[in-house]
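Objective 1b: paired records.
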Amino acid sequence: MLEPWTISSVRSALAAKKLSARELAAEFFTRIDAQNPTLNAYLTLSPERAYAQADKIDALIASNKSLPPLAGVPIGVKDVLSTRGIRTTCSSKILENHFPVYDATAVERLESAGAVLLGKTNCDEFAMGSSNENSAFGAVKNPIAPDRVPGGSSGGSAAVVAAGLAVASLGTDTGGSIRQPGALCGIPAMMGSYGRVSRYGLIAFASSLDRIGPFANNVHDVAAILQTIAGRDPRDSTSTTAPVPDYTSEIAKPVKGLRIGIPKDYFAEGMHSGVRAKVEAGIALLKSLGCELVDIRMPHTDYAIATYYIIATAEASSNLARYDGVRYGLRVDDPTLIGMYRKTRGAGFGPEVKRRIVLGTYVLSAGYYDAYYLKGQKVRALIAQDFRDAFTKVDAIVTPTSPIPAFKLGEKTNDPLQMYLADIYTVTGSLAGVPGISVPCGKTPQKNLPVGLQIFGPAFGEARVLQLAHAFEQAGGANL
């Protein structure tokens, strides 16, 4: 396989005039034409927009003007992020012909930095799933092992980077939907703190949990993409005013002396033996770099999955009520209003989305709100407190990303509970609002499948997370 393109290699090639931005975009579209029919990772391509952006970059080069930081870098964007004039479906039949009239802030910022948008990536419908098998337009295949899932819900965004069909991509993470596919496809993938990246233009699943973040071939590129999309946006009242550090400079700092928390609660029964062995080897590698290992307890971890699936489904029930066939999206006519609602939603939503709407409506209903939703919010506060307490003792927390490597397509589709349990190590950081990254940590000995090491930092501590991930990568963590 050819050495993957990176932000720096794209920049060097363009500056040296080894190729033009248009030629590079054309190369990626050729690759997509060859591989996407098998992988099903892109749903919609945007060649007209890509070539227009590439031509702007080539004009800057021709006039010897300085290039923006992501000049000519080909990217893919998860199909839950609005893109002006480009079909945005959320991988759902209900939005099959939806063409937004504006760009998400994150997309806007990437293009302002010179990135070239190749197209929209496949995902679980409305970002609900852990395998990318819930898409109304077919499952994505893992480019490392095509008989297996790429992870979800941002499986397409992970697959396009792992397969060399984009230099970087954007996904979204509600309970692990960036980090888990990053782990299963063997690439770095990061979720910043809640509020670090504007959610304007992100079609909502669970508004208090959804976050936008990058996939790339190395930690430096993850840092560069996050740097570009982070920061206050007046169009999103939940985006933070906290200053954005220079992540690409911060990652080079030494990690010797950093205290790394190892929570015993994340190394319970049920973890795949190959995953456990590789993650333990990864922790040993961090120790060899001079990090101090500290045993910590996260006592409310066992309640995280139940808490997440109460809060996330409740918010999904509220957010998806807008798809009623009246204003936009699919409409199935009926003589009565209720009949039109039923037929539209029945035809437009897939089984997993329907399941979560029913669950969410139930926990919000009269007589059950206090018993489920209110209690879930209280437990969420306890999980967040676990993280705050831990970060008084340690600088970062290291865990497995997923308890299992990529599983076979179809293996868990008839057992939603087993699918939900695949998120056991990721939902905690989502509920707590802290940043987390998954970095490649070797491969399982039996099937040679990628393993991910997860690093959490305190709220708005992305620089520390990236610093540790970069040191781990540079020390050969991916080849353990």
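Objective 1b, second protein:
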Amino acid sequence: MNNTTSKPFARSLNDRMIAGVMGGIAHRYGWSPTLLRVIFVIVSIASAAFPGMLVYLILWLLMPNEQD
């Protein structure tokens, strides 16, 4: 079996604009936080903004803060 440890799915404490959701997701998958934020805003605007804001709020509530 492969015993590689993956990064936890948690909100970023250091890379936050609002709540650290996009920063946490970006760090988890090794993506650029800025690029992920831009993509999220574009997709949210294209979908009338409400579903994107709702998804962000749900993730904010469900994702724990990362540990130091």
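The radius of gyration is 13 Å. The first helix runs from residue 21 to 29.
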